[in-house]
Write a structure and sequence with these properties.
With 516 residues, the chain is an alpha+beta fold. 41% of the residues lie in helices and 16% in strands. The chain has helices spanning 91-107, 111-122, 139-144, 151-155, 185-200, 225-240, 247-254, 278-287, 317-330, 332-362, 364-374, 382-385, 389-419, 426-436, 467-479, 508-512; strands at residues 3-14, 25-40, 55-62, 67-74, 80-82, 125-131, 257-260, 293-296, 303-309, 441-445, 455-460, 483-484, 495-496. Strands 1, 2, 3, 4, 5, 6, 7, 8 and 13 form a nine-stranded mixed β-sheet that branches. Strands 10-11-9-12 form a four-stranded antiparallel β-sheet. A hairpin with a 5-residue loop joins strand 4 and strand 5. Helix 1 runs parallel beside helix 5, helix 1 packs across helix 6 (225-240) and helix 9 (317-330) packs across helix 13 (389-419).
Length: 516
């Protein structure tokens, strides 16, 4: 028996910082970049004396990092004890395993299912974890090989390429161990491990990708996706040592969405809980009335998401968030004014994008004609290219969308300046301004909390086919040292996979989007 589940990375296009506080919403797009967890038994058969065992074996392998960790799992307490070097361990994976096993002890009340669960544990757990190349930075490898910083160079790398660790200097010990692109690798990894284990144990019934998990948003559906969400959120928060907004885990579970965070007190059972059995803690968490809000959302038809890696150094999201919170405390009046303006602008942008989707549904031929025509021209030429009334209303809405996003960028810069953090640093501003002047670009910004990690653009047209437009954007980004990534939007959330992704001829990211 083998179970393979995958979960997507994310791009938060609106709601940075605001999404930390209810009832503010964030719009988050899930991506073609996915993490995969493969779960299979260690033992084909269990010996007759296994009924007396107190521990089960667990092995976690990360081929891209050439790491393997082994554990003993307490069948009584659902806790792991590492039996290998701690160097190869991952706290997110460890918490995911422990919380899944504890959750199954709570929810599998049927005797047959519980007996089957116990037997699966005795067989041991062999877990393999893989991440799409898009989650990691390969700039250094490309440069060392004398290859250009182009999509073609990235696509020449084999799927699930080995990951190079950063060399940490004595002066910059805070640099991450692995260079990443900011797509939410820990959330996607945690979610796919949770989904694969819960499905493997029979606690949930995760659909295959054709089943489309987008929209399964906490409505009590029978596949158990809500349990995946609660356990993934819990394990992720415990592993990172803080209760974040959870938008990254939510998008990994449910796909592209408008998200309002859960109340932090829902995870209070996990605090100061060293003396309580883990199944008891997990039972309390599951019984809570989770109040997150998930509304399915995706970009309007014929609009494409493109991401770029500037290569100007990473940003520390926790420290930036801390600085913004300190600013709110020290200047409550002005911070609240900016906060509210941002919330209003974010809501307006979401409304514009939804209205574009409605126009595409009611007047698709006109909509397609406008997008195709305008995709080869800069924004200030769009209106003069269109002569019919419906087409003009579509262009007007496109320009309103663009102007609203410009306002959002301005407010984020204002907030960053006031808080003393580089939410949209000057180097990024120059790149984004050039990007928004490029033919066919609707908007461009820094995702999530901002900083130096990444830039994104939403362009008119299908990124798979609009090669001419893409080349112009690639040239603009290339002139500023920005590496275009091979990742696009995929609105689907967590799902089962039909086979080992390493056996596919082309990785999911490259097959979903190519930029030539």
């Amino acid at each position: 028996m083998e179970v393979i589940a995958s979960a997507p990375g994310k791009v938060l296009i609106t709601g940075g910082y605001l999404v930390l506080e209810r009832p503010n919403a964030g719009v988050v797009l899930s991506t073609t970049a996915r993490f995969y967890a493969i779960v299979r038994p260690i033992l084909d058969q269990i010996p007759p004396d296994s009924w007396a065992w107190a521990w089960a074996d667990v092995k976690v392998t990360s081929p891209q990092l050439a790491r393997e960790a082994t554990y003993k799992l307490s069948l009584k307490n659902s806790t792991l004890q590492c039996t290998s070097s701690r160097e190869g361990t991952n706290p997110f994976v460890e918490q995911a395993i422990q919380y899944c096993v504890a959750a199954c002890k709570v929810v599998l009340v049927d005797k047959d299912k519980n007996d089957a669960f116990d037997k699966l544990l005795l067989h041991g757990l062999d877990i393999t974890i893989l991440g799409s190349n898009d989650f990691y930075s390969y700039r250094n490898q490309l440069e060392e090989a004398g290859m250009g910083l182009t999509p073609e160079a990235l696509s020449s790398l084999p799927p699930f390429s080995p990951i190079t660790l950063n060399t940490v200097s004595a002066l910059s010990g805070s640099k991450p161990e692995v260079a990443k692109t900011g797509l939410g690798s820990s959330a996607a990894m945690t979610t796919c491990v949770v989904a694969s284990l819960l499905h493997y144990f029979g606690a949930v019934n995760i659909p295959f990708k054709d089943g489309n998990t987008n929209g399964l948003s906490g409505n009590g559906n029978d596949c158990g996706i809500d349990l995946v969400h609660v356990i993934a959120q819990s394990a992720h928060c415990i592993a990172q040592g803080k209760i974040g907004s959870g938008f990254d885990v939510s998008s990994a579970v449910f796909g592209s969405q408008k998200y309002v965070r859960f109340s932090p007190h829902l995870l209070s059972p996990s605090k100061d809980s060293s003396w309580r059995p883990l199944p008891e803690i997990v039972s309390d968490i599951i019984k809570q009335k989770w109040d997150h809000e998930v509304t399915p959302f995706s970009l309007p038809p014929l609009l494409s998401l493109i991401l770029g890696e500037p290569g100007t150094g990473g940003s520390s999201t926790p420290s930036m968030v801390g600085s913004v919170k300190n600013w709110q405390k020290s200047d409550p009046i002005n911070s609240q004014i900016i906060w509210q303006k941002l919330a209003d602008s974010n809501s307006l942008l979401e409304s514009h994008l939804k209205n574009l989707t409605k126009l595409s549904e009611s007047h698709f031929d006109s909509y397609k004609s406008v997008i195709t025509t305008c995709s080869s021209h800069p924004y200030h030429k769009w209106m003069e290219l269109i002569s019919d009334q419906i087409g003009e209303s579509i262009v007007k809405l496109l320009l309103e969308t663009r102007n609203t996003f410009i306002q959002i960028r301005q407010l984020l810069r204002e907030m960053g300046n006031s808080a003393g953090v580089p939410i949209e640093p000057e180097s990024q501003t120059q790149i984004l301004d050039l990007t928004m002047e490029t033919e066919g670009v609707l908007l461009a910004g820094v995702p999530g909390a901002g900083g130096y990690d990444a830039v994104f653009a939403v362009i008119l047209g299908d990124a798979n086919h609009n090669h001419n437009n893409n080349n112009k954007l690639i040239n603009v980004w290339g002139s500023r040292g920005v590496l275009p990534l091979l990742v696009g939007e995929d609105p689907n959330g967590v799902c089962l996979e039909n086979g080992d992704p390493r056996t596919r001829a082309v990785s999911s990211a490259i097959s979903s989007i190519q930029i030539n």
